[in-house]
Amino acid sequence: MSFWTNSPTGNNVSKSNISVNNAFWSITVANILNFESYYNAVQIERVSLSTELGIAAGTWETVVGIVAAGAAGALTASQLINSYNNANSCISTAYNYISHM
What we know:
The chain has helices at about 25-55, 60-70, 75-100.
C-alpha cells in the first residue's frame, strides 16, 4: 500500500439538510477536523522521513521496515505510522456517524 502520493480512497457518503442539533453532527465534525490534522501530520512526517533517509518515495512496507530495523529515521517513521493509523480511524468514525444520520 502506497501512501506517499495517493490521497485516501474509499466509499463516499453524504447527507443533506442535517441539523446542527443532530446528535451525531458535532462528533462527526470533530472527527473530520481530527482527520485533517492527522493527514497534515502524515504529509509533514513523510517529507521529514524522506529527507532524513535521502529517499524520494517509498511504500508502507518501507516505513515499517525502517522502524523494525531501528535505522535512522525510526522515530519519524513511527510517528508517521501512528498519524496514518489515527487519520484512518478518524475518517472511518466520521463515515460511520454520517451513515447513521
